[in-house]
Each structure stands twice: as C-alpha cells, then as structure tokens.
Amino acid sequence: MERKIITTADGSVTIHLPGWDEQYHSRHGAVQEAQHVFIKMGLHYYLERTKIDALNILEIGFGTGLNAFITFLEAAKLQKKINYTGVEAYPVSSPEIALLNYPEMLVAEDFKEEFMQMHHIRWEKAIAVSHYFQLKKQKKKFEEIEDTCLYHLIYFDAFGARVQPHLWSEEIFQKMYEALQPGGVLVTYAAKGSVRRAMIKVGFKVEKLSGPPGKREMLRALKI
C-alpha cells in the first residue's frame, strides 16, 4: 500500500495511506493529538488518581513512536518509572523514520538519539532507554495479545474503525480489559457509538471527553 509522509496542522508529520484515506495521526496535529489523548487524558489522569511511582503502559499501535517518545519525555519530567510495551505488526521503515520530526517539534533535539534507539532496538527484549523509561516492542497482531492484569494504562491507537473495524470489536476490547489491572485505564482518540458499546459490553465504564484539536470527542474506559 502506498505511504506518504505529510505535515499536519501543528507542523509535525505523520504517515498517510492514500488507498485508505487514513493516517497514523490526526491531520489537525499529530503532536497535539498525542499530548491531549494519551498524555493529558491518559497518563496524567492515571497518575493524579493513583500517585504511584512506576507504571506499566501498553500501546496498541507503536507506529511512528510518537506516543512512546512523548511518554519517555514525560517520565523524566515527572520522575516516574515507566515500563512501556508497544505492539506493532507492521513496523515503520527506516527511510520513514528518518523523516519523522518529533524531537524537533517537541523541542527535544537532545533526545533524538533516544528516539532513534526506540525504533531500532531488538523486538521482544525490554531495553532501558533511560533511568525512567524501559521499552519492549512486540511484533505481533493485536489479536495475539494474551497478557493478564499486567498494565495500568493502555494507549489504544489503532487505525480507525472505518478502515479496520475488527480492531475495535468486543473480542479486542475483551483482551484489553483482561490485560489491565483493576483500576486500569484505556484511552483512545475514537468516539464512535459502536466502539463505546463494545467497550461497555466487555465490562468497561466508559466516559466521553473533549477531543483533541479537530475532533469533538474521545473515549476513556475504566476497568472497575
């Protein structure tokens, strides 16, 4: 499938798939979306509720590494140890990685080496990227996740339900529910009624929140 690097409204880039008319991040701002959905509504929300010093995060769709990189930067700011697992069946290519401008957009050029390291570390091996951030990348499909009560927080950042509806099914959200510890949180940019209903059906308590720039709503799900 054809893939293009495009610039989003906030100046950060993303990967566009013309055949699907879909992209890895919002056209209204890749960095803005990640910071709002996953950091503000996910990471910060969870830490404000629990006050723990270390947490386990699962990302559904490691993709460009943007969410992981921002979380890496936040871990140092907050002085919280984060064990981060990124699941990705179809890794971004080296030429594409070279065009990603996230360290510059986040005023984090000093950590460009760490950003590149995240993309090039061995799969299936936990690597300490910094004192506060450990990354393990798993090359597999989301359907193959079998973790139980392991994660405090899930970043659900799969391609949209319009192009890949099976990734937003009850079956997948059942796996997410089982992977979370009691009190765990899942956040996603999506807000479709069918997605919300699938989450509720497997046991999540779901709330609608204000979305990132260009999107009215998003969802946050709690494992009670």
Distance between the termini: 40 Å
Name the beta content range: 25-35%
CATH topology (level 3) name: Rossmann fold
Number of domains: 1
CATH superfamily: Vaccinia Virus protein VP39
Shape: globular
SSE series: EEEHEHEHHHEEEHEHEE
For the largest beta-sheet, the strand count, sense and barrel status come to:
8 strands, mixed
Secondary structure class reads: alpha/beta
Please list the strands of the largest sheet in the order they lie side by side.
6-7-5-4-8-9-11-10
- The averaged pLDDT comes out at 97
Q: Summarize this, please?
A:
The protein is 31% helix and 27% strand. It is of the alpha/beta class and 224 residues long. It has seven helices and eleven strands.
Q: What can you tell me about this protein's structure?
A:
With 224 residues, the chain is an alpha/beta fold. 31% of the residues lie in helices and 27% in strands. It has one domain (4-222): Vaccinia Virus protein VP39 (Rossmann fold). The termini are far apart. The model has no long low-confidence stretch (mean pLDDT 97).
Defining traits:
single chain; 224 residues; alpha/beta; Rossmann fold; 8-stranded mixed β-sheet; 3-stranded antiparallel β-sheet; 7 helices; 11 strands
Set down the secondary structure blueprint.
Elements: E1 4-7, E2 13-17, E3 22-23, H1 30-50, E4 54-60, H2 66-78, E5 81-87, H3 94-97, H4 102-105, H5 112-120, E6 127-128, E7 133-138, E8 151-156, H6 170-179, E9 180-188, H7 193-201, E10 205-210, E11 217-222
Parallel strand pairs: 4-5, 4-8, 5-7, 8-9
Antiparallel strand pairs: 1-2, 2-3, 6-7, 9-11, 10-11
Helix pairs in contact: 1-2
